[in-house]
Amino acid sequence: MNAADEYLDDDLVVVHTVLGNAPAYVLMLRGTTSSWNAPALEAHFERAITHGIAVIVDCGALRFGDSNLLRLLLHTRALRQLVLVGPISTTFTHRLAVTGTAALFPITPTLTRALALVAS
């Protein structure tokens, strides 16, 4: 595992990691996504997409995911293989259900399972 960097603000932490074995680009999200950190979050997703490999988004420590996060996930899914790692917060699970997008995202309970899914 090669930790690329970490982004911190009062509400959100994003850790980037590139895993060569799978290969996959992992974004670990901790905290809350909101309009305040939307531009930075978009830059993180674009960085992941430009690597040209599968993207895994670890949402296990995400307390709240807004509609912008859903938009970024849909955009990423259109361009790369995308797997989410849970558990997914109740509020974001509700957002996925209400928008009819829950079935679009494979969700695994661990990073290890997400990597296995990407490798298959």
UniProtKB/TrEMBL annotation:
InterPro entries: STAS_dom, STAS_dom_sf. Residues 26-118 form the STAS domain. This is STAS domain-containing protein.
